[in-house]
Amino acid sequence: MLTLGMQEVDRGRDSPLYRHMPALDGLRGVSILWVLSMHLPGQMAPGGNFFTSRGGLGVELFFAISGLLVTRSLHQCIVRASREGGSTAAVIRDFLARRVSRIWPPYFVTLAVVLAAARFDPSLRENIAYVESTLWSFPAFLANYTIPYREPPLSLLVMWSLCFEEQFYLVLLVFYVLGSGRLGAWLLAGAACSIAARFLFAVWHPEVFSKAVMHMQLHWRFDALAWGCLGWLYHAKIEAFWQRAKFPRVWEALIILFAIAACVPIPYSPLADAGHHFLMAPAFTALTLAVAYSPGFWLGKLLAWRPLAFVGIISYEIYLSHVSVFRVLGRLGLEQTTLHYYGLCFGFSLAIGWLFHRLFSRPTQEWARAWLAPRPARA
């Protein structure tokens, strides 16, 4: 059992399976800059403007992109195992090696740095003491299930989305093992069950959704990444649609309007929140797919701008470190000059993110992946 149940693609580097898509890097760049803008002092709702106060939606964009790319990564593992005469076990080992080598080293280093910093920062130490009973959930990648009930400092709070994704990756792998030829059906069923549960509980048991429960916990929002996964499974048909479309600019405009509509804030209620998430995931996935596969899309060309794409490449390290960067700059008293402080926050976050990526993440990723899933020796 190696196939994904989809048409095999060319193994060349220009094939969709291996093609680099800088526009998606740029979209990740926009996402992380959006998140950074929200975490600046005074910019989180209700104090921020429409754009910055909605910066949490940058994480939702990450989910849409991740769903597409992680399923492509799984497909690459399958092709590699098939070419090298491997089995399903080889696919599992390769897939886990990719995810662990990319996510774990920066994640655990950041966690260690934040906890160590609490020894020297009294306010941080006090905030961490408040969540001491749930600290176990961070190394266990279960923090998205404890944070809604006991909120940690922002340096740790941002890790909820990484836990969310790690859990999804494991479920995706389980679905593959259960039957790769039916992976699309499993994903669709998982998304449908999650959506149905969300609406049913919002109507009959709204008290379940206190604070950020619906937003952070995977079983309520499995569809956040599932649509992106389905986008890869049917990427050939989607790409063919864009190549044959008679009015591609009209379709692109409609997708942009759909994505913008999904960003409009609505008065909170569990039912309204359930509906908002129902629309937001496919809206952002449609935007991701259009950027990836629509030839001549002006937005795709804009997002492929090299500096923006570079920010997207180091977005994981920026996401992990930016709150600590903001905190250090604030402790230096730079918050008094708002505009200069904001500029310094962005500049130092990008610089630290690049150093983190260049000096730590990339070397450890290469080493860990080679150790966890070594390539067989050639005869």
Rg on CA atoms, Å: 21 Å
Q: Beta-strand percentage?
A: under 5%
- Based on DSSP secondary structure assignment, what is the total number of beta strands? 0
Instruction: Give the distance, in angstroms, between the N- and C-terminal Cα atoms.
Output: 25 Å
Low-confidence stretches: 6-10
* Largest sheet report: none
Number of helices: 18
Tell me, rounded to a whole number, the average pLDDT: 91
Detailed description of the structure:
It contains 18 helices and no strands. The longest helix is centred in the C-terminal third of the chain and has 35 residues, at 338-372. The model is unreliable at 6-10 (pLDDT under 50). It has one domain. The chain has 379 residues and is mainly alpha-helical.
What are the main properties of this structure?
379 residues; mainly alpha; 0% strand
Layout of strands and helices, then pairs:
Layout: H1 22-39, H2 50-53, H3 57-83, H4 88-117, H5 122-130, H6 143-146, H7 154-157, H8 160-179, H9 183-204, H10 213-216, H11 223-233, H12 235-244, H13 248-263, H14 270-293, H15 298-303, H16 306-313, H17 315-331, H18 338-372
Quick description:
By secondary structure, the protein is mainly alpha-helical.
